Amino acid sequence: MQFSTSDPKRPPIRLSILIFLYFLGSLFAIYRMISTASLDLFSAGMLPVLVGLILRTQWAGVVLKIYLGIQTLGFTALGVTAVIAYQVSPEDVRLSLFGRELSVPIIALAVLLLLLFQWWIAFSKPTREYLSKVRNSA
């Protein structure tokens, strides 16, 4: 099933969804940066990706793939650390958000699906075609 727009200036639907998710993540990163007075490169790293995708720059595809690689390495390291910590003391490995305890397998599945979705978009043909077309604005 191919969802494409007739307007070549508009990104494909799946890329639009990713841009929206990166926009929300960037807002959160900026809020977190202001409220904690520290820069988190893991979340703030999506800002150049977002700018590149919106402006449709030549380097946007490369930066997106590099950022996905960094995300994958970061989440893999976090997962390995959690498994090691769980082996040492299982009662200390807990995830909580706003006072509610979260299920580790559900979080792991959500992160895996999010990463797979991003990789699928980054290497899809519509994304490559959209980013390869030179902007002709006069």
Structure characterization notes:
The chain has 138 residues and is mainly α. It has six helices and two strands. It has a two-stranded antiparallel sheet with strand order 1-2. Strand 1 and strand 2 (100-102) form a beta hairpin. Helix 3 runs antiparallel to helix 4. It is elongated. The two termini are 34 Å apart. The mean pLDDT is 86.
Report a brief summary of the structure.
The chain contains 6 helices and 2 strands. The protein has helices at 13-36, 41-44, 46-55, 60-88, 104-122, 125-132, and strands at residues 95-97, 100-102.
Task: Spell the H/E element sequence.
Answer: HHHHEEHH
By DSSP (H or I, 4+ residues per run), the number of helices equals 6
Q: Report, as a whole number of angstroms, the end-to-end distance.
A: 34 Å
The tally of beta strands, per DSSP, is 2
Strand order of the largest sheet: 1-2
Q: Largest beta sheet, briefly?
A: 2 strands, antiparallel
Radius of gyration: 18 Å
Overall, the morphology is elongated
Task: State mean pLDDT (0 to 100 scale).
Answer: 86
Low-confidence stretches: none
Our estimate of the beta-strand percent is under 5%
Task: Assign the structural class, choosing from mainly alpha, mainly beta, alpha/beta, alpha+beta, or little secondary structure.
Answer: mainly alpha
Helix content: 55-70%
